[in-house]
Amino acid sequence: MVATEYQFSPATLTFKRGVAYRLHLENHGKELHEFHAPDFFKAVELGDPAVLNADRTEILIHPGEAKDLTFVPKKAGNYKLICSDHDWAGMTGSITIK
Fold it and tell me: How many structural domains are present in the chain?
């Protein structure tokens, strides 16, 4: 997934329960962007929780930076994704676990 001003690409992600994933996040913009999805993070088993902030609500991605999130989805549902600083500009998305 790539973050730029002011969008996620792709803006919709879908995962299957019980399957291990590595989500690669890149910031191609000039501003700090957040992958803020607290309910999603509660619905998965995290491989390395250290990639998240202390509250486990988001991943901070600085300009030019890339981070990987490893996880196994556990709870089916639809989850909201926002950039907490730029949701007002439409920088939102959705995550589905089937």
Answer: 1
The alpha carbon of residue 47 and the mean position of all alpha carbons in its chain are separated, in whole angstroms, by 14
Distance CA 29, CA 61 (A): 10
Q: What is the number of H-type helices and E-type strands within the chain?
A: 1, 10
CATH number at residue 46: 2.60.40.420
60 bridge partner residues: 34
- Region 38-61: mean pLDDT is 96
For the chain, what percent of residues have pLDDT higher than 90?
100
- End-to-end CA, the chain: 19
